[in-house]
From TrEMBL:
Its main location: other. Belongs to the flagella basal body rod proteins family. The lineage of its organism: Bacteria, Pseudomonadati, Pseudomonadota, Gammaproteobacteria, Oceanospirillales. This is Flagellar basal-body rod protein FlgF. InterPro entries: Flag_bb_rod_N, Flagellar_FlgE/F/G, Flg_bb/hook_C_dom, FlgE/F/G-like, FlgF, LlgE_F_G-like_D1. Keywords: Bacterial flagellum, Cell projection, Cilium, Flagellum. Residues 81-145 form the Flagellar hook protein FlgE/F/G-like D1 domain. The basal body constitutes a major portion of the flagellar organelle and consists of five rings (E,L,P,S, and M) mounted on a central rod. The rod consists of about 26 subunits of FlgG in the distal portion, and FlgB, FlgC and FlgF are thought to build up the proximal portion of the rod with about 6 subunits each. Residues 198-241 form the Flagellar basal-body/hook protein C-terminal domain. It is found in: Bacterial flagellum basal body. Residues 5-35 form the Flagellar basal body rod protein N-terminal domain. Pfam families: Flg_bb_rod, Flg_bbr_C, LlgE_F_G_D1.
């Protein structure tokens, strides 16, 4: 009886963990450059002081889906999207290099080029700072050119270049901050083959219909585990009544 209850209980907990992964994917269906996560369940034996007679289900996030999202045209000069494979390099909150596909760039009050969420963009020589400008243009290789404020239209200055990389996805992992990091902490070199498209942003690669289907299936699975626990409790109560001695 306790084995069945343990199986039902652990199954319900892991189903809730799987729901969390798919709910997070669905919540980011409109997030620029978001990469959805996979989930899978596998059986794990419980080891202790005695014979490993218990097996429970464990939900895990084995990988991230790196397929490209839809290209959305904005016409905005600071919006860029990676065409094909590759990533834009940013600095995370700890100052480490991290990687993203979110190209909704902004210029903050300090004149620094940042993502829409405020993360500094990495250039070839560190963070990118821009002086006041009448026009900013980002070319396919990530080079940033400006027309200085008050300058003539022919006065174009190239100031920096966005660091674009294309590492092997086997060396990458998505962390809790939503950014892509290298597995061993190494920094990747610039890849000249990575190209940007100006005036576009890349949407999330989440398939909303697929995620909703997973969520509904997991809801039914959770209800099944709850019903199993209720059945086990009912059987235990019935067995206890049978064993009771008449007064």
């Amino acid at each position: 009886m306790d084995k069945a209850l343990y199986l039902a209980m652990s199954g319900g907990v892991q189903t809730m963990n799987a729901q969390t992964i798919h709910a997070n994917n669905l919540a980011n269906v409109s997030t620029t450059g978001f990469r959805s996560d996979y989930e899978q369940a596998r059986s794990m034996q419980v080891y202790g002081d005695y014979h490993p007679s218990r097996v429970y289900a464990m939900t895990e996030n084995p990988a991230t889906r790196y397929t490209q999202g839809d290209m959305i045209q904005t016409g905005r000069e600071l919006d860029v999207a990676v065409a094909g494979e590759g990533f834009i390099t940013v600095y995370d909150e700890q100052g480490r290099e991290a990687y993203t596909r979110a190209g909704d760039l902004q210029i903050n009050a300090a004149g620094q080029l940042v993502t829409g969420s405020g993360l500094p963009i990495a250039g070839v020589n560190g963070p990118v700072f821009l002086p006041p400008a009448d026009r900013i243009h980002i070319t396919a290789d990530g080079s940033i050119s400006i027309v200085p404020q008050g300058g003539a239209g022919t006065e174009v200055a190239i100031l920096n270049q966005i660091k674009l990389v294309n590492p092997d996805i086997e060396n990458l992992r998505k962390e809790e901050d939503g950014l892509i990091h290298s597995r061993d902490g190494q920094e990747f070199d610039i890849d000249p083959n990575v190209q940007l498209v100006s005036g576009f942003v890349e949407g999330s690669n989440v398939n909303a219909v697929e995620e909703m289907t997973h969520i509904m299936n997991l809801s039914r699975r959770f209800e099944m585990n709850v019903k199993m626990m209720d059945t086990i409790k009912g059987n235990a109560d019935a067995a206890a009544r049978v064993l009771q001695r008449p007064s």
